[in-house]
Design a protein that fits this description.
This protein has 2 helices and 8 strands. It is of the alpha+beta class and about 160 residues long. It has one domain (about 1-155): Porin. Strands 1-2-3-4-5-6-7-8 form an 8-stranded antiparallel β-barrel. Strand 7 (about 110-120) and strand 8 (about 125-135) form a beta hairpin. The termini are far apart.
Length: about 160
């Protein structure tokens, strides 16, 4: 019992360390020519500030059905915020397709993307791309709330 408690404590400490270092769990839904769940980890490359919006790299997997069977498809992506507002560009590369997209990203925590899939193995992965993601991490991962700081500067 003591051994299991020790392992649980060490695991909890490691998870806390990961999330305090700019890493977040990324969960979401993507339409990649077929419905797919997404699970992965994102790492924030730059430091969060009101002048510095998110740049993330991430790895994960799509969970989808191919020919009636569940299939895990590994994917890596790079997200870059356009300017200091909510707009972003995203490039995802998997073993089945490449998906460039544009979208909205609110505080580097909620993302909605629209784009197109270019398949290079299976044509069922070709077509429009729609994605919705939630990033669950520590405060060092999220953008500062620029909107509220901007309003405060007008009031002063």
């Amino acid at each position: 019992m003591l051994k299991k408690s020790g392992i649980a404590l060490i695991s909890l400490f490691c998870v806390k360390m990961l999330f305090s270092q700019g890493i977040a769990a990324n969960v979401g839904y993507d339409y990649i020519g077929k419905n797919a769940a997404y699970v992965g980890l994102d790492y924030r490359i730059n430091e969060p500030s009101i002048y510095n919006t998110g740049k993330n790299i991430g790895v994960g997997t799509y969970l989808t059905f191919v020919k009636g069977r569940v299939q895990l498809i590994p994917v890596a992506h790079y997200m870059y915020s356009l300017g200091k507002e909510i707009w972003e560009a995203n490039l995802a590369v998997s073993t089945k397709n490449v998906s460039p997209s544009l979208g909205a990203n609110i505080f580097n925590g909620i993302a909605l993307n629209l784009g197109y899939n270019f398949a290079y193995q299976d044509n069922s992965f070709r077509g429009p791309f729609i994605g919705f993601h939630l990033m669950l991490g520590g405060k060092s991962f999220y953008d500062k709330m620029k909107f509220f700081l901007r309003i405060q500067s007008y009031l002063v």
